[in-house]
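S.,

Sequence below, as promised.
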Amino acid sequence: MKNKNKAAILCAVFLVVLISCRKDNLTTNSQDALHPKGKLYSVQEINNVIQSSLQKTGDFKWNEQSDELLYSAVIHGDSLLSVGYGNPQSSNTVTESLNAEAQMANISVSEAKKAGVNIDGIKSGILQQVKTAEAKENVLQYESPVLTNMVVKIGNLSTLQELRKSKAIRYLEPADYNKFLLKSRSAIATESLSSGGGGDPAELPGWFIQGSGEPLIPKSYGDQKIPDAWKVSTGKGITIGLIDNGVYQAQTAFSSQEFGAGRTITLFGTFKGANDVYANKDDMSADHGTGMASLIAAPKKVNLPVGIAYNCNLVSYRATDFVALWSSKQQQGVASALTKLADDNNVKVISMSNGWIFNVSVLADAVKYAKSKGKLIFAAAGTSIKPINLGFFVIDIPKSVGVIFPASMSETVAVTGTDYSTTGSLVSCKECHEGDKVYFTTTTATSAGVNNAVAVYHDTPGQYGFSGSSSAATAINAGIAALVWSAHPSWNDKQVLQRMVESAKLYPNKDPKLGYGPINVLKAVQP
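The prediction came back faster than expected:
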């Protein structure tokens, strides 16, 4: 069959490499002292502050910036301000410092009402405050029906300053500033190539271990005892939620007819509209969602890709068009998918091979909400390769950035990829991000320099390509979780994760960069 070469954007992140500047605190900012009063910070100046914080701390937080800098970022970002509100008794809430119950009373509309909080009144009061300050009625641009956050449009610095004084405000962030990290020619992101295959295992000689009449099984699956584990569990009865850019409608492997009897596949969309459930050819993450769906749940067919949990149910959300969640449209799409999966009692596991370079609070709210519902959430640590010029921006990010958001959150399980080793030792993947937040690894490359080695479907029925790095490793480990949960259906998310940890190669030790390493899946599914 004819080979295809396609580029699939995997876990992407962005930042700008510029000069450093010091940010002290909200009230005593040396840059503010030097900055002309009443003049907006330029995009370059804001990016300088972001870059400086990332270099010094590995993170960036809008709530630590001055009024003037935050306001400038809001105005540059089409004047859109993301507002998280909550219980006024929790003054200027930093939700990470609260216990789970208090977090949910601030983050979830329904939980706030259960706790006796007049959350509708709080929201109405904030909106009225903005309307009065801006002298206009049409300020609300978006509001979550589930979470206590919304987006408003402002034009006055004084509006922002007064909101920051409110005890009902959890966070204020520019909703659409990150596009300026994209558009700059020095902006950097991550990518991993997914080389197309025409159905010829000879493309990676010696890599597949399937026998006669078997699907394509990579050698790394054998090392993790996945084929052996299939004799005990195939994911039956477990539903996995996939948040990505959807699956191709043309790929018949994910049609209800071919997916397999006794299990279900459901496609939804939260990115552009309720009917936008399929990946589009013009997506910057072309093939990505289809590839991740393959790794999780592809049906078992001869000489074709097979899902780790090939008998599980799959709920796929097209929540974004790109794995780098830089726009409010993407963030709202992913947040909406998270809340819908959280409220689906059938869903046990969520797989997210997407994210951003630093915390986005509207997404953090949704992750915490899903976790509060007992979901086991897998997120990609991040992927980097050499620069690629996409015309309107350049992709290039150092591995030293570390684990990206939301994999950096304690509510998620961070996963990264490794290169294959003939000795059994863990070999860092040159483009896969690492750090102390990582839980598990999976080998997704045959050797150094071969970025992709796990077979996945793209758009053409009967043909496959390859994927790899941290995105693929994330989907694979989400599938492993389904195998464990199917073998132990009475367990909760904590018990499933603990069994996975105890079955991992390095347990009870934890590597500072690669976590507990790869999971022995046969051991994990045992009684």
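The chain is about 30% helix and 20% strand.

Coffee later?
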